[in-house]
Specification:
Distance between the termini: 51 Å
Radius of gyration: 25 Å
Strand content: 25-35%
Shape: globular
Structural class: alpha+beta
Strand order of the largest sheet: 1-3-2-6-7-4
Number of helices: 8
Order of helices and strands: HHHEHEEHEHEEEHEEH
Largest sheet: 6 strands, antiparallel, barrel
Helix content: 25-40%
Length: 281
Amino acid sequence: MRISGFYGIKRKGQKGVRWTVQWAAIMEKRMAFDFKKEYREFYLPKNQPEIVTVPKMNYIAVRGKGNPNEAGGAYQRAVGVLYAVAYTLKMSYKTDYKINAFFEYVVPPLEGFWWQTGIDGVDYSDKSSFNWISVIRIPDFVTKKDFDWAVKTAAEKKKIDCSSAEFLSIEEGLCVQIMHNGSYDDEPTSVKIMDDFIRSNGYENDMTEKRLHHEIYLSDPRKSSPEKWKTVIRHPIKKHNFVKNCLKYGIMKVGGAICQIPLTQILRNKCFLFPMNRQLF
């Protein structure tokens, strides 16, 4: 939150006044709401897979297709639009436009939802076929009206076309995620770790047109080497159908085969059950 009053502190000598102003600015920055710190479970996962339920969040979003590494390409232009609108909203309190219930905050990290038509999962070797929705999260107090004002203002101030920006709400729900350390091209290693984890815990990936491969970029690739990059990778999941059936039916071994029999019948016939803690598929 913004600190008021520090600028009115009087000290002897110009240096004291200058120090007070600088200190107030530092404290003001420290007290700004930081999504990464307040919601660590969504932005700072461990290096091992974990299951989370992600609630509804609002974003500035730009959709596109193509290689994200193309210099001056659609992806890089989209990122420029996102940051232009994001910082217009962040700095709105210094303009005549006032957002209801506004509080100062740190602009959240860049994120991306990715998919490829006709491909199950992600083929990192064919970046030209990527479809993407590049996003930056915005606070819940930002309304569609506030968003439209920011898009118009950013376009006028930055002299760029921001019409591709849209107000997007996404509720990811049940997901598995991991902190990937290293180059984006090495992500398949982390994805395999996630896949093995969910399989051994009775889940399966649930990629659909609305539930997508999700990445959150915590490092600036312009300022650090690839081995130091940190990226949250998140996949939508669901309970495996076989495990769902285990909750409704008992599992019995008959002549080496696995059979599904209603639990009441198994109890009545005193059949032997598989241990439920073993890997079932």
